[in-house]
Amino acid sequence: MNLQKYLEKRIRGWLPKELSLAYAHKAPKPRWWRPLWIAVVILTLASGILSFFVLHMPLQHAVIWTVVAFVCIGFAYYIRVRPSFRINRALYVLLGITPFGFVISFAYAVFLGRYVTGWLMGWFNIIVIVGILIAGGFVGDWIGKRRNYQLPLSP
């Protein structure tokens, strides 16, 4: 019986306590909301056109990078307008991987990676760096769980 209560508490700890209430309220958008997104779209198009004409970037590169920028803008708009539990959790995991994982991986590669030599060097470094990135994901998920997976400044 104690095992059942322990597992129930453990699983419940991974879920937000008030999932339905966390995303139920809709805050009104500020006055600058629409002009911000219009300006972002216009500036993205302008930077794509300027990179083609002024920087003499090949046309396919300018188009590809402009499309990538629009995909990122769409994702940013989506996470601000329609926040969901899954998206917020994924963002916390990615935000944990990025600073924690890459900084420690870089420090490992610069300072400790040169001491491992021989045929083991490649596989050992890959395993250690992937382990560090996975640990960063767990740290990001832990931080998100403590914040109830609410993004800062989210409505």
Q: Estimate nothing, just give the exact number of structural domains.
A: 2
Which outline best applies?
flat
User: How many H/I helical runs?
Assistant: 6
Strand content: under 5%
User: What series of H and E elements makes up the topology?
Assistant: HHHHHH
First-last Cα distance: 41 Å
Taking the sheet with the most strands, its summary is: none
Helix fraction by DSSP (H/I, runs of at least 4): over 70%
**Overall average residue pLDDT:** 76
- Which regions have little confidence, pLDDT < 50, spanning 5+ residues? 19-24
Class from secondary-structure proportions: mainly alpha
Q: Would you report the number of β strands?
A: 0
Q: What would you report as the Rg, rounded to the nearest angstrom? A: 22 Å
List keywords for this structure.
155 residues; mainly alpha; 6 helices; 73% helix
Structural write-up:
- This protein has 155 residues and is mainly α.
- It folds into two domains: 59 residues, no CATH class; 71 residues, no CATH class.
- Helix content is 73%, strand content 0%.
- It is built from six helices and no strands.
- Helix 3 runs antiparallel to helix 4 and helix 5 packs antiparallel against helix 6.
- The two termini are 41 Å apart.
- 7% of the residues are buried.
Short structural summary:
With 155 residues, this protein is mostly helical. It is 73% helix and 0% strand. It contains 6 helices and no strands.
Walk me through the topology:
Elements: H1 2-12, H2 19-22, H3 33-53, H4 59-81, H5 85-112, H6 121-146
Helix pairs in contact: 3-4, 5-6
